[in-house]
Amino acid sequence: MTTNSLGAETVLQWLQNCAESFKCHQDELTQLDAAIGDADHGANMARGFTAVQGKLAGLRDKDIGTIFKTVAMTLISTVGGASGPLYGTFFLQAVAGANGKRALTQEELFCVFSAGLQGLMNRGKAVVGEKTMVDALVPALEALKPVGDDSLPAALNRAVAAAKKGADSTVPLVAKKGRASYLGERSAGHLDPGAASSVLLLEALQQAIQSSA
Amino acid sequence: MKKLINSVENVVTDALHGFAAAHADLVKVNFDPKFIIRADAPVKNKVAVISGGGSGHEPMHGGFVGKGMLDAACPGAVFTSPTPDQMLAATKAVDGGKGILHIVKNYTGDVMNFELAADMARTDGLQVESVVIDDDVAVKDSTWTAGRRGVGATILAEKICGAAAEAGHSLAEVRELCQKVNAQARSMGMALTSCTVPHVGKPTFALPEDEMEVGVGIHGEPGRTRMKLKPADEIVELLMEPILSDLPYRSGDEVLLFVNGLGGTPLLELYIVYRKAAEIAQKAGLKITRNLVGSYITSLEMAGTSITLLKLDARLTNLWDAPVRTPALRWGV
Asked: What's the CATH number of domain B185-313, 3.90.550.10, 2.20.25.90, 3.30.1180.20, 3.20.20.140?
């Protein structure tokens, strides 16, 4: 495998990393959510990716589309809250471009994630600047776009940096979507928990790609 | 954290087992996925009415499953929306051939999960309609927020729609009634204390001994303003003013006044709230022809109250009075 394609084994490693990361950062996400939401985001993400982890063994030798579909249905049926349908829809919309494939080129990965993000945004009806996960994901996707003489690890480094910057940009914002929007001005001064979990998802992929390279 | 639980992980499951044992004459509980249905479900040739939401608000919604109210309720984890697979399974379990109404409280997670469930049910050939309840005047209703939250009007809508379904109304009629109840009801709440979500282990927000949160949400979301604690009568004025000014209730209107406890407030205090709320409503020329006082939509052990006003007409009053036989509401049977 070249460093410019993402193999199914690396995808499974990504999901494994996600499960470990959300377990590790559960309390941190919950604290962020307690400040401006309802204190369930950490537990919800940990529960969802622990359930995904339980299905990984059955996904060896499967194509990436099948893996994404399993992840989508598992997240939709275990996470609850708003993040379940949102991340679930992301993976569900990513299925079409990954069906039957055991590896994705950098270009294909960009297309697959674009479709996923579009689905997520249609479901949540949020745009950049409303203090949601979209604030991390939109710049991350933009940074993932292949440039001349690119490599997948380099693209992921850019994407993670952009996601972090995007997540940080939510701190001063007044929430306009989700439960934090009920707070109005009082939501300003806090990092959005959804944007924080999106950074963790991308970091988990970054680590999986680095360790496979 | 001091709670009467065995383990944080099993809070909802343990409670559901107890609920099933206590109310076996009224309901059946399914555990995987979790949903509660009427003991006689599916009722043939009747519109089915379903609701659901996070646990921690008991008796809502499971306590309202039974003849004359809900056909099914889907409990999520504490303060977390149930998932579409639960709603889909419940929808199928109660389908009596005349369609299914989903009553959804306006929270981002609940709305998205119910949307996914309704999409899946329609793909399976079921006739599903949804109504989103958003009666909380504490939240500014604008394109700048997720919109008003669903609170007290939810159970009034569940009661009235359940009665209409029992009386043989069509899915379109039951849906319209639900929309009408939502349009004619307004609510506002306040908290004296926070609540502790079991898997978090400490209070969701810190509220000093001499302060209160006005406009609080039922998940412990901070509200509109925080201020010094006042006597009950002044607190009730703070809650009633935005309710009365939001919906143009007119002098002479008949209303249902619902004083709800958030879980940690005794009935003794709720009647103190009712006394003042009724006085204010009467001063505004409203005729309180029906009422409900008690803890029906709770926020775990939070101390506080919410007040809901629903403008009635003869049809809504008849449906409110119709027999209901559920674990938490029971009359006429």
From this structure: 3.30.1180.20
Question: Residue B87 is encoded by which pair of tokens?
Answer: 């709603």
* Residue B286, H or E segment: none
**Nearest Cβ partner of A80 from B77, B220, B223?**
B77
Q: Which of A47, A76, A181 sits opposite B116 (nearest CB)?
A: A76
**What CATH class does B12-184+320-326 carry?**
alpha beta
CB B188: neighbour CB atoms within 10 A?
28
Query: Which residues of B have a CB under 8 Å from any CB of A?
Result: 33, 54, 76-86, 107-109, 112-113, 115-116, 138-140, 144-146, 149, 197, 199-200, 204-205, 217, 219-223
Q: Is B32 exposed, middle or buried (0-12, 13-18, 19+ CB in 10 A)?
A: exposed
- Min CA distance, A54 vs chain B (Å)? 17
Could you report the per-residue pLDDT of B157-193, keeping only the tens digit for each?
A: 999 999 999 999 999 999 999 999 999 999 999 999 9
Percent of chain A with pLDDT over 70: 99
